[in-house]
Amino acid sequence: MSAVLTGQEVSEAVGGLGWRLLLDSVRTSVAVESLAAAAEVVARAVEVCGGEGERHLAADVRPRQVLLSLQSPWCAGVTGADIALARGISAAVGGLGLRTVPQAGAGALRSVQVLEIAVDAADIAAVRPFWKAVLGYGDSAGADGPADAPADGPEDPLADPVGQGPSLWFQQMEPVRVGRNRIHLDVSVPHDEALRRVGAALAAGGRMVSADRAPAFWVLADCEGNEVCVSTWQGRDG
């Protein structure tokens, strides 16, 4: 099995191909003119992956775009195998006269991104079963565990079993805080999109809560104090 690559290694390998590292996967977008064209893009991607490689690939198919992601299933991370598949898929998409790019949506409305929900809790083991039940979610391995390993620990993240909704993770709250929302969003964006996104949020009436951990993440809040973290892969290796 290939070793899990660092964020820097992944970014340097796929950046020029139109893929971006988001959390533990690489993602890209392909603009198309029809659902039939979208299906052809996915067919080419599946052909590139073949056999075992299909387990690395996930696709979201729409009439105007295809979103593709790659991740090594045995480690919940990006390996050399994923890099090779990204190269092959980009070449195959190019053969259709299309491109893999990090902008998603008609007119490049935004970059590819990953949304997570974070719950601050004093007793994670006590609140986690509620969220698992009410969302209909399943157990998801933690950041250091293999993607296909059993994960039912009392503090493990929760994931949508069909891969549609954002994952949910729990953050230990010490000491217990009052007068502050205990749920916030994490928006993981490409490293070359983060400053633009932060600037847009500030221009829209937001305020900077903390940039102490930038470029790993910036903590922003709306005018009523509801918080969101804009995150990248940078500042996390080592």
Keywords:
2,3-Dihydroxybiphenyl 1,2-Dioxygenase, domain 1, 4-stranded antiparallel β-sheet, single chain, 238 residues, Gyrase A, domain 2, 6-stranded mixed β-sheet
Task: Provide an overview of this structure.
This protein has two domains: 7-104, 2-Layer Sandwich (Gyrase A, domain 2), CATH 3.30.1360; 111-231, 2,3-Dihydroxybiphenyl 1,2-Dioxygenase, domain 1 (Roll). Strand 12 (207-210) and strand 13 form a beta hairpin. The chain has helices spanning 7-14, 35-53, 80-94, 124-135, 194-203; strands at 20-22, 25-31, 57-61, 65-70, 103-104, 110-111, 114-121, 138-139, 158-159, 167-172, 183-188, 207-210, 217-221, 227-231. The model is unreliable at 141-150 (pLDDT under 50). The chain has five helices and 14 strands. By secondary structure, it is of the alpha+beta class. It has a six-stranded mixed beta sheet, covered by helices on one side.
